[in-house]
């Protein structure tokens, strides 16, 4: 999760998020190089009294500054499109979960099980135990098996919501009457926090998302206990 004064992204917990971090660094390096070149040219043009007729009127330079930006855009676009298609790829998910947005909580249905579903409300500040995070903890976590493809069907019952977990590289709008889908694979066990990322009313800030990734054996034990309680 994010830390105070953190400037970068959260640590990646899925292969897609790792790809997004690499692409961010790739694009940022190109931006730094362009900014350095432009700053150097501005300083050089402003500080020198010399002029060069080949700079003022040169066919070759015009070709270079037309072709070079096009090449740079291609170098940014190709990896961007690759990640875009990777994010839309859903191959043989091991588990499907339906996340339904409400004002102002989430409900989850494990559609591969006959009767496994629950509502997930934020824990009020006065009820938090030591070590829990304010405005981020829920009374029921969305538990998933690690290193398994998970498909999440996202919708809403009332207004627009958005199901987002930054460390997993997942953000999908929840639209009433529409069923959107996204997928992720958790590469390690852990607890990953997110929040509704679409303004949805007065308590928009108070509908967090908590995804807990556990080994498959622990997930099976958890699902058995949940089915017994139901």
SS field, number of helical segments: 4
Helix content: 25-40%
- Assign the structural class, choosing from mainly alpha, mainly beta, alpha/beta, alpha+beta, or little secondary structure: alpha+beta
* Global outline: elongated
Rg value: 24 Å
Q: Which parts are unreliable, with pLDDT below 50 for 5 consecutive residues or more? A: none
Percent in strands: 15-25%
Q: Tell me about the largest β-sheet.
A: 5 strands, mixed
GO cellular component, one term: mitochondrial inner membrane
GO molecular function: copper ion binding; cytochrome-c oxidase activity; oxidoreductase activity
Protein name: Cytochrome c oxidase subunit 2
Family: Belongs to the cytochrome c oxidase subunit 2 family.
Short summary of the structure?
Belongs to the cytochrome c oxidase subunit 2 family. The protein has helices at residues 15-47, 53-56, 59-88, 216-229, and strands spanning 95-102, 105-110, 117-120, 142-145, 150-156, 161-165, 170-174, 180-184, 190-195, 208-214. By secondary structure, the protein is of the alpha+beta class.
Task: Write structural notes for this entry.
The strands form three sheets. A five-stranded mixed β-sheet has the order 3-2-1-5-8, with no helix packed on it. β6 (161-165) and β7 form a beta hairpin. The protein contains four helices and ten strands, in the order αααββββββββββα. The mean pLDDT is 91. Helices cover 35% and strands 25% of the residues. The radius of gyration is 24 Å and the shape is elongated. With 230 residues, it is α+β, with helices and mostly antiparallel strands. InterPro entries: CcO_II, CcO_II-like_C, CcO_II_C, Copper_CuA, Cupredoxin, Cyt_c_oxidase_su2, Cyt_c_oxidase_su2_TM_dom, Cyt_c_oxidase_su2_TM_sf. Belongs to the cytochrome c oxidase subunit 2 family.
């Amino acid at each position: 999760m994010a830390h105070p004064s953190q400037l970068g992204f959260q640590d990646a917990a899925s292969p897609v998020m790792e790809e997004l971090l690499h692409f961010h660094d790739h694009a940022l390096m190109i931006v730094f190089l362009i900014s350095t070149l432009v700053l150097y040219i501005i300083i050089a043009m402003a500080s020198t009294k010399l002029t060069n007729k080949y700079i003022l009127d040169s066919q070759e330079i015009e070709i270079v500054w037309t072709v070079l930006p096009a090449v740079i855009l291609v170098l940014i676009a190709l990896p961007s499109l690759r990640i875009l298609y990777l994010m839309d790829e859903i191959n043989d998910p091991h588990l499907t979960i339906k996340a339904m947005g409400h004002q102002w909580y989430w409900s989850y249905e494990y559609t591969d099980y006959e009767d496994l579903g629950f509502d997930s409300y934020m824990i009020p500040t006065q009820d938090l135990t030591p070590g829990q995070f304010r405005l981020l903890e829920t009374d029921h976590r969305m538990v998933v098996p690690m290193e398994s493809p998970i498909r999440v069907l996202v919708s809403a019952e009332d207004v627009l919501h958005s199901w987002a977990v930054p460390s997993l590289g997942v953000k999908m709008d929840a639209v009433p009457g529409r069923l959107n889908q996204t997928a992720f694979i958790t590469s390690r066990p852990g607890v990953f926090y997110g929040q509704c990322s679409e303004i949805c009313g007065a308590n928009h800030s108070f509908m967090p998302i908590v995804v807990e990734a556990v080994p498959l054996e622990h997930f099976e034990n958890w699902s058995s206990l949940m089915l017994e309680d139901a």
